[in-house]
Automatic annotation (TrEMBL):
<dbReference type="Pfam" id="PF13386">
    <property type="entry name" value="DsbD_2"/>
</dbReference>
<feature type="domain" description="Urease accessory protein UreH-like transmembrane">
    <location>
        <begin position="10"/>
        <end position="219"/>
    </location>
</feature>
<feature type="transmembrane region" description="Helical">
    <location>
        <begin position="88"/>
        <end position="108"/>
    </location>
</feature>
<feature type="transmembrane region" description="Helical">
    <location>
        <begin position="204"/>
        <end position="223"/>
    </location>
</feature>
<protein>
    <submittedName>
        <fullName>Sulfite exporter TauE/SafE family protein</fullName>
    </submittedName>
</protein>
<dbReference type="InterPro" id="IPR039447">
    <property type="entry name" value="UreH-like_TM_dom"/>
</dbReference>
<feature type="transmembrane region" description="Helical">
    <location>
        <begin position="141"/>
        <end position="162"/>
    </location>
</feature>
<keyword id="KW-0472">Membrane</keyword>
<keyword id="KW-1133">Transmembrane helix</keyword>
<feature type="transmembrane region" description="Helical">
    <location>
        <begin position="59"/>
        <end position="76"/>
    </location>
</feature>
<feature type="transmembrane region" description="Helical">
    <location>
        <begin position="174"/>
        <end position="198"/>
    </location>
</feature>
<keyword id="KW-0812">Transmembrane</keyword>
Length: 227
C-alpha cells in the first residue's frame, strides 16, 4: 500500500465525510460564531482568524491522537506473531474505509458503536471546552478547537483505526493531518455561509455519493500496488 494513496484516501474521507460532520461540528461552529461580538460575526474577514484558530486547534488534536495510535499500532504489530503485519494492517484499513463509506452513505451505521464508546471519554473532556466560551479572542477559539477535536465521531474514529495500522507515530500523525485538511473547506465555509449549504450537504443523495467515493478508495487499497 503506497503512503500516497493512504494519505490521499484520508484527505478524501475528510473532504467527502465532512458532509456527515455538519450535523455534529456544525453546531459547534455555530456555537463559536454565535458567542462572538456582533461586529466580528457580521464580517467574514473578522471571522476568519477565529475560524482558522478553531480549526488549527481541532486538527492539532487529531494529529496528537494519530501519533498516539500510530505509536501503539507499531508496538502492537511487533508483538504479534505475524509474518507480514503490513498486509494485515492494509486489510484492516481497507475494510474500515469501506465501513466508513457505508456509514457516510447511511447504508450501515456500525460505526455508531465507536461513537457510543467515545462518548464516555467525551463526558470527561467536554466541560473543559465550556471554559473558552463565550469566545472573545482567537486564542480562546484555539483552545475550544483543541478540546472539541476529541468529540466522539465515527468518521474520526475510522481514520484513527487507519492510523493504528500505519505502523509508526509519524505516519499516524500524517494521516490525521491529511484527514483534518480534508475537513477544512467544509468547516471553514460553514462558519460563514447560509443554512442552505448545510441542508444541501445533508441530503441523502449527497451523502450517498460521498459514501460511494470513500468505498471506492477502500476497495483501491486491496488492489495490488507496484513500488
Amino acid at each position: 500500500m503506497t503512503t500516497e494513496l493512504t494519505l490521499f484516501s484520508a484527505f478524501i474521507a475528510g473532504l467527502v465525510g465532512s458532509v456527515h460532520c455538519i450535523g455534529m461540528c456544525g453546531g459547534i461552529v455555530g456555537l463559536l460564531t454565535m458567542s462572538l461580538p456582533d461586529n466580528v460575526r457580521q464580517s467574514y474577514l473578522r471571522l476568519i482568524p477565529y475560524l482558522l484558530t478553531y480549526n488549527i486547534g481541532r486538527i492539532s488534536s487529531y494529529i496528537i491522537a494519530g501519533v498516539l495510535m500510530g505509536f501503539l499500532g507499531a508496538q502492537f504489530s511487533q508483538m504479534l506473531p505475524l509474518e507480514n503485519p503490513r498486509v494485515v494492517a492494509m486489510w484492516v484499513s481497507g475494510l474500515f474505509m469501506i465501513a466508513l463509506g457505508l456509514y457516510i452513505g447511511a447504508w450501515w451505521q456500525a460505526l455508531t458503536v465507536l461513537e457510543k464508546g467515545g462518548s464516555y471519554l467525551w463526558r470527561k473532556i467536554e466541560p473543559l471546552g465550556r471554559r473558552f466560551l463565550p469566545v472573545k479572542h482567537p486564542l480562546q477559539a484555539l483552545g475550544l478547537g483543541l478540546v472539541w477535536g476529541w468529540l466522539p465521531c465515527g468518521l474520526v474514529y475510522a481514520i484513527l483505526v487507519f492510523a493504528l495500522t500505519s505502523n509508526s507515530a509519524w505516519n499516524g500523525g500524517l494521516l490525521m493531518l491529511a484527514f483534518g485538511l480534508g475537513t477544512l473547506p467544509m468547516l471553514l465555509t460553514m462558519g460563514a455561509t447560509a443554512q442552505w449549504f448545510t441542508q444541501f450537504a445533508q441530503k441523502l443523495i449527497v451523502r450517498r455519493i460521498a459514501g460511494f467515493v470513500v468505498i471506492l478508495f477502500g476497495l483501491m487499497i486491496f488492489l495490488p500496488h507496484h513500488h
